[in-house]
Amino acid sequence: MTEQEFYDKVGKTNGWDFSSVRCISEGMEWDFYGEVIKKASPSHILLDIGTGGGEKVLEIAGSFSLIVGIDNSKEMVHTARANLEKSSAANVRFFQLSAETLEFPEGFFDLASSRHCSFDALELAKVLKKGGYFLTQQVSEGDKVNLKKAFGRGQGFGEKDGSLKEMYIRDLKAAGFSKVAAFEYDADEYYKTPEDLIFLLTHTPIIPNFGEQPGDLAVMNAFIEENLGEQGIRTNSKRFLLIAER
User: Fold this and answer.
1) What value does the mean pLDDT of the chain take?
2) Which pLDDT value is given to residue 18?
3) Which of 15-19, 99-103, 209-213 has the lowest mean pLDDT?
4) d(Cα 108, Cα 89) in Å, to the nearest integer?
5) Residues of 117-156 as b/e, b for ≥16 C-beta within 10 angstroms?
6) In whole angstroms, what is the distance from residue 139 CA to residue 114 CA?
7) What angle do CA 180, 154, 2 make, to 5 degrees?
8) Would you say residue 97 has pLDDT above 60?
């Protein structure tokens, strides 16, 4: 299954909604869209890249004049538009569009955000106003370390931790962003039941083709037995945050 097929499948069945997953996190140092709101003004226009089912931006619609959410997956956008119809937000629009070709007027957006989605720094620099901000939260290579070691594969598995962060910082500076501030955390996560963890793994690319390779079930059972404690099944969530000024 290609990456595009995976996101279309998830978009059709779930969007990017993980509210049903029961998980305790210890050590998270920020809420990403809370950080976005800190830079917002009621007159601002926000571009959200990789918006998924639009769940997060619909929650913060009242902080902006207009929000434009884009996603490369047709099914994600379909789900986002369905979620929009069920909401009270009148200032949000969703489009199927690649982050590599932002077909908007130059300097159209005051803010841009990207949560766990790749982006093109040059395209962002083109559509952001001078003095505008871009915020992105990304998954570090050191995320879900014990899971990836157990399965012998995974998102960023075997890559040097911090590589993606340093690449994005270089790209943003090269694109003309004047200031780039970086933050990171490595939080403990405890999933209440095996079903909660399995839901996460079947709806994200953390372990590619999870459940489809021989031996995955045995590996999962052994992992749960080894990492199950009083708070739940333990793993880690490692994230970095970049805040760049245009």
Assistant:
1) 93
2) 83
3) 15-19
4) 21
5) bebbbebbbbbbeeebbbbbbbbbbbbbbebbebbebbbb
6) 12
7) 90
8) yes
Residue 85 vs residues 56, 78, 91, 133: alpha-carbon distances, Å: 15, 11, 12, 29
Return the exposure string of 10-23: e unless at least 16 CB atoms fall within 10 Å of the residue's CB, then b: bbeebbbbeeebeb
The whole-angstrom separation of Cα 75 and Cα 146 is 31
Which residue is it, tokens 């007159």?
43
Per residue in 181-226, pLDDT (tens digit) is 999 999 999 999 999 999 999 999 999 999 889 999 999 999 999 9
What size, in residues, is the chain?
A: 246
Q: Give the model's pLDDT for residue 6.
A: 35
Q: Which residue has the tokens 């395209």?
A: 123
Amino acid of residue 37:
I
Which amino acid belongs to residue 240? F
